[in-house]
Amino acid sequence: MLERPQPLPVSSAEEVVFSKAKYGSVKRAFVVLEKDQAVPKQVQEGMIEKNPPNRVELIGDSDHMVMASQPAKLVACLLAIVQDLS
Q1: Which pTM was predicted?
Q2: Residues whose CB is less than 8 angstroms from the CB of residue 77 and which lie 6 or more positions away in sequence, other chains included
Q3: Continuous segment of H or E residues that includes residue 41
Q4: β-strands 55-59, 29-33: how paired?
C-alpha cells in the first residue's frame, strides 16, 4: 500500500487568504459525480457550498474515475463548461 508517512510540509505558518479581486475573478466549474465513493455526494455538495463555482454539472452513473467510466459524458460536459465560461 502506498502511503505518505508524514504530512506534506507547510511553507508558512500564516493562513492563506483568497480575495474576490484575484482568486474570485477566476471562473470555476464543479462536476458532481453521482456514484463517487471516494468523494461522496454530500462531501461534493459541501465543497460547492464552501467555494461556489460559476457552474455545476452532474454526471450520473459515474464513479470517481469519470474519465474511464463515462468518457463521452465527461467530454460533452467539459465542452459545455468551456463554451459557457469562455
Answers
A1: 0.73
A2: 31, 57, 59
A3: helix 41-50
A4: parallel
Task: Quote the CA–CA distance of 30 and 52 in Å, as a whole number.
Answer: 9
Burial of residue 33, with CB atoms counted within 10 A of its CB: 0-12 exposed, 13-18 middle, 19 or more buried: buried
**Adjacent-strand bridge partners of 33:** 59
C-alpha cell at 3: 502511503
- What is the full DSSP assignment across 51-78? S--SEEEEETT--S-HHHHSHHHHHHHH
Domain regions of the chain by residue span: 28-85
Cβ partners under 8 Å of residue 8, min gap 6: none
Residue-level pLDDT, tens digit, the chain, 86 residues: 566 666 666 666 667 777 878 777 889 999 999 999 999 999 999 999 998 999 999 999 899 999 999 999 999 999 999 999 99
